[in-house]
Amino acid sequence: MALYGVTDADEAKPKWAVRGGAVDPSNIFATADGWVLRHYKNAAKTAFWDEILVSVDGIVGAGGRGTDTLGNADITAVFFEETTYAAGATGTVVVIYNELVDVTNGATLVVTNTTDSASITATAAAQTDTNRVEFTFTCAAASKVHTIGAQTISGTIVDANTSTASDKVFVLGDTIGAGGSGSTKTITTT
Asked: pTM score, two decimals?
């Protein structure tokens, strides 16, 4: 059995990387060097090192099992950074891609207060060469339940160092629990 999938449909990720397992599949993505596993050095995920799993040098011809089989960057997970936020605090929605992307300042998505059906716009700052796009929003001033669901991201997100449009539509199945846990799709301000 192959260790890697071949198509975008099976995310072409290692089959041994399973959500909830020892290796988080959202930390594996394609780069110009090949498939990498990103190891974060801090909780804020601002410092990291990349372990090359399959190098570009090891990829031969079209239809191989590496980055040459990927199309546009696809969304593989969407989640709230934390499980709860203080009222009025800054919240973060994280969108994970299967390869590196560039984001134009002002890309947005919608966070809904299910308590009163009021929408909040979450905005991403300009980012380059990342597979982890962070959208920030201000939580409601009072206690509320916030959710993210299937939607289309507004703004420009392209495959890194290209003008090829990346996936900006995510479905309910892409949204996972707060902190990437897979357990719930909501957060509460307290």
From this structure: 0.72
Considering the domain architecture, whether residues 95 and 56 belong to the same structural domain is answered as no
* pLDDT tens figures, 113-168: 777 777 889 999 999 999 999 999 988 777 778 888 889 999 999 999 889 999 99
Is 3 a member of any domain? no
3-state secondary structure of 13: coil
Total domains in the chain come to 2
- Rounded Cα–Cα distance for residues 167 and 164 (Å): 10
Q: How far is CA 57 from CA 3, 29, 162, in A?
A: 18, 16, 21
| Interior angle at CA 112, CA 106 and CA 114, nearest 5 | 170
Domain range for 60 is: 8-69
